[in-house]
Amino acid sequence: MSLRAKLTLGTATAASLLLFAGTASAAEPGAPGIGDPYYPNAGNGGYDVSHYDIRLNYQPATDNLSGTTTILAKTTQDLSRFNLDFLLKVSSIRVNNRVAGFTQAGGELVVDPKQNLRKGSDVTIVVTYSDVPSNYDVDGYKSWKRTPDGALAIDEPDIAQWWFPNNNHPTDKATYDVSVAVPDGVEVISNGTFNGTAKQINGWTRWRWRSAKPQASYLAFLAIGQFEVRQSTAPNGQPVVNAYSLNLGENDLPAKASVERTPEITEFLEENFGPYPFEAQGGVVAPGIGFALENQTRSTYDPGFFRRGANTYVVAHEVAHQWYGDSVSVHRWRDIWLNEGFASYAEFLWSEHVGEGTAQENAQYLYDLYPADSDFWQVLPGDPGTADLFHGAVYDRGALTLHALRVAVGDDAFFTILKRWAQEKKYSDATIEEFIALAESVSGQQLDELFQTWLFTPGKPAAAPGAATFA
Ligand code: ARG
Ligand code: ZN
């Protein structure tokens, strides 16, 4: 039979096509998780995403989110089927332009392409959906939050599966085009560069954003509602977009007095960490977030951080995450100290810069703050477990760990280590063990005991880092 005749057998089974193609190795299903012990179902095996094009419509009155996400990916094995992480109800999927089968359960979207996918091939996946994200909980927790005037898709470690199908793990980064159409008068904020609004034929307005550097899926965000949007240009020429919810009150002016200084803080951190890794800057303040999060290029803040006056420390913390967390991401969630310890240490550096206490004074203060019998000293920053992923110990003991390193190796080696870490792992992911190896190679010192004490041993270390010792 001719090739043409074979190819027109539209009803041929996957198996016969496979035989015909003469494939030696059998295609297998991609794993439902990427292999992270803290979150076994996070991410998926068998492919790498390079780009998400997320084109949605959102109606605040009903919380209905509908539209299409187009994913560009490359297979890393011969695949008979593969998973995406997604909670919302899907209406159709195409893989390489052909209608694909699919099933959904427990946040796993299992996609059955008509034809097996060969290892190393480019794949285009188009997922169409319509649903109400606030209807979904995972382990009793709802990351998507409705607000009186819109919604917030902002959380860590999990938010993406509430609004777009994705490979939900920081080890698979991609670029993003995000556009959301909303009723006229509503604002939509997301990551990266603002590509303007476009009038839709139905009287709605589409807001268009592009995040052009590799980005983890949990760092993609949406803030939808009534916002004052401020656009400006940073001293380094980058676009700055800040957005303040109109639901902030008069007592929220300190939020603006803090977040408006994002470019100044970025400039200061560049001196310590090396070049800022992204193409845009900014911050978003909105009630209902409940925490602050380092969304790539545009951190997001609950107004509660600014209720007692300006707070540039939380801005320094989130901006520092752009290097440590967003550009250099955790390889496994166990490595969270590489994010939170470093961002917390940036607060020490900022404190010294603004003349409000040296890093040494901050370290001594935190060491003294927690009594030896406090539960605080029982949480290991180097392996906190999922329940304590964001425990204060990961932040404060985490910052103390970096100060202990600085005292041990000296300022020159310390800042060389921080800069080289950001440079060598840029747009990638890394483990604590790799950081220790870099610190040892830059300093020429054996540092196992230092890190063992500060990151991996329960109990309060015998002395604060850098504390004067008396013989
Ligand atoms: N990475 C954030 C920060 O330290 C913390 C996020 C906490 N997440 C949460 N769901 N509470 O700035
Ligand atoms: Zn943080």
Describe the overall structure.
This protein is an alpha+beta fold. Helices cover about 25% and strands about 30% of the residues. It is built from eleven helices and 23 strands. An eight-stranded mixed sheet has the order 6-5-9-3-2-12-15-14, with no helix packed on it. A five-stranded mixed sheet has the order 17-18-19-21-20, with helices on one face. Strand 2 and strand 3 form a beta hairpin. Helix 9 packs across helix 10. The N terminus is likely disordered. Zinc ion binds next to helix 5 and helix 6.
Spans where pLDDT lies below 50 across 5 or more residues: 1-23
Distance between the termini: 91 Å
Number of strands: 23
Bound molecules: arginine, zinc ion
Q: Quickly count the helices.
A: 11
What coarse outline follows from CA principal-axis ratios? Answer: globular
- Percent strand: 25-35%
Q: Numbering strands along the chain, what is their spatial order in the largest sheet?
A: 6-5-9-3-2-12-15-14
Mean pLDDT: 94
Helix content: 25-40%
State the major sheet. 8 strands, mixed
Q: For this entry, what is the oligomeric state of its chains?
A: single chain
Q: What is the radius of gyration computed over CA atoms, rounded to a whole number of angstroms?
A: 24 Å
By helix and strand content, what is the structural category? alpha+beta
Summarize the structure.
This protein has 471 residues and is an alpha+beta fold.
SSE layout and pairings?
Layout lengths: L2 H5 L6 H8 L6 E2 L17 E13 L4 E12 L3 E7 L4 E6 L2 E2 L1 E5 L2 E5 L9 E10 L12 E4 L2 E4 L20 E10 L3 E3 L3 E7 L4 E12 L6 E4 L1 E7 L5 E7 L7 H7 L2 H12 L9 E3 L6 E2 L5 E3 L10 H12 L4 E3 L6 H17 L5 H11 L22 H18 L1 H14 L3 E3 L1 H12 L4 H9 L15
Helix pairs in contact: 4-5, 5-6, 6-7, 6-8, 7-8, 8-9, 8-11, 9-10
